[in-house]
Specification:
The chain is mainly α. It is 72% helix and 0% strand. It has one domain. The longest helix has 25 residues.
């Protein structure tokens, strides 16, 4: 690093717009994993059955909540 380099790492991150498709893809993956965990825990407690429909529903709900919270 040179002494004249005044732009730091945080400045570079703040200036970056990023690709929203990457954020959506990460949100889908993490929401699915979290939905899987939620339904898995509920099935251990015998409050829900562990099936694809319940996992997908939980993932969609988590995705929608995180999308609206981060975009507002």
């Amino acid at each position: 690093m040179s002494g004249g380099d005044t732009e730091g790492f945080r400045d570079g991150i703040d200036a970056s717009q990023g690709d929203p498709r990457v954020l959506l893809a990460i949100n889908v993956v993490l929401s699915t994993l979290f939905g899987w965990t939620i339904i898995g825990g509920l099935s251990v407690l015998d409050l829900a059955t562990f099936d694809l429909l319940n996992v997908a529903t939980a993932a969609i709900i988590v995705f929608a909540v995180t999308y609206f919270v981060t975009m507002s």
